[in-house]
Amino acid sequence: MSAFRLRKQRLRRLSDRGLLRLAEYLEGANFAAYVDLIQTPWRLALLNLIGGIFRGLGIGLGFTIIAGTIVMLLQQLEVLNIPVIGKFIADLVAIVEAQLHTRQYTY
């Protein structure tokens, strides 16, 4: 056998192994489903819309729970009448009231 023929056979075996590994990787990564999704833009848009709605609901509910917890904690601290925190809350209320009574300019 000639050296050229041996090199060609080795290259073919390496190429076949590489292609097999690439095929296994793409199959494991579910690449076919991704390509199918890209080829159907309406389905992709619908999935993104549904995902965005649920993300928005999650953010809204999460913020509501956290804000409610903070308000309840501040109410409990107000009942305890701790001087430093009570003064801080009173200053905060005064700032908000002052802002409400100032003239607001519209552009």
Helix-strand blueprint:
Elements: H1 3-28, H2 31-39, H3 41-80, H4 83-101
Word description of this protein:
With 107 residues, the protein is an all-alpha fold. It contains 4 helices and no strands. It is elongated, with a radius of gyration of 32 Å.
The count of β-strands is 0
Helix content: over 70%
Task: List segments where confidence is low: pLDDT < 50 over at least 5 consecutive residues.
Answer: none
- What's the order of the H and E elements? HHHH
- What's the end-to-end separation, in Å? 88 Å
Number of helices: 4
Counting helices, strands and paired strands, the structural category is: mainly alpha
| Overall outline | elongated
Rounded Rg: 32 Å
Biggest beta sheet summary: none
Residue fraction in strands = under 5%
Mean pLDDT: 79
Keywords: Membrane, Transmembrane, Transmembrane helix
Transmembrane segments: 53-74
Write a brief caption for the model.
With 107 residues, this protein is an all-alpha fold.
Which features characterize this protein?
107 residues; mainly alpha; 4 helices; transmembrane helix; membrane; DUF5665
